[in-house]
Amino acid sequence: MVGISTNDITDSDINDSVEQLSDGYKIYNTGIISTCNTLTKIITIIPLSNFDNLINGDNCIQIKDKVYIYNSTNADGYYTINTIINSTQFTVLENISNSINGNILYMHPSGSSKIGFDNSKSKNITKKTVQEALEQLDIKINKKNIIINFVLPESISGKQEWYYVSNWPGKFPENSRSGNDNGIESQENCVPYLIPFTGIITKCICILKSSGTATSSVIYPVNFINRLQLVTFYSVSTLFDIIIPISDNYIVGNNRLKNTDFKISFPCNINVTECDLLALKFINGSSNNTVSRMLNSYISLTLEES
To answer: Domain 12-113 is of which CATH architecture?
Structure first.
């Protein structure tokens, strides 16, 4: 049997211990820059005796290797190798300025960037290398996540009504509702929820005890409409209508309240900004497929930092 010779294997076929242990900044060779082209993103090097070209020898560059340029006229910084053109040229992923001269350091990417990751059972990780999965997990862990609870623990019939923010202590006084049409201009007008960071409302949970239409008949699905509103100093404006369909698996009364005992959780995509004042309002309908009267509604919103 004929053995494998060096002609059968290239440097890119082997992930050696030096590459496996790299933290992403392990320098394996150096060089001198000739030119950098901003339009093509091509870097051209000057061949040296210890590194006669980029594609032969034991220290060949590879796609996704990192390079660092310094002492150039206009292109100092870190770049990622995208394609290898020939023995003296390669392109980079990042934008690069037109430049001449300078030095270049060639670095192995992190060893974990060359190790696969099975994300098929993960709820939060979509990446497919260990390095990318860890980076994605780090972002997820460090993002803030809060729950905003609104409650309307009373019987409402044939009118719109504001929810309360549910962390209000004790009995809900009338002036503690989350919003009103005049904003926060006057003393004790309302108590909206103050958004502490810019983010996205990603989930809504709704519980509704009883509901009914304003008509003698009911057509399913019946829409339970709640309006998320931004409260300002002098007014309110609509941010998003949360329209929740109630299917015929539940009971909605015709022109009266009936025990609906409704629960649902669903994804959302509602953008909010730090310092927004948030309020929620029940919007009564007049048709046979909208809720006009209700008893005891609880709505929980999950806010994730963006």
So the answer is: Beta Barrel (2.40)
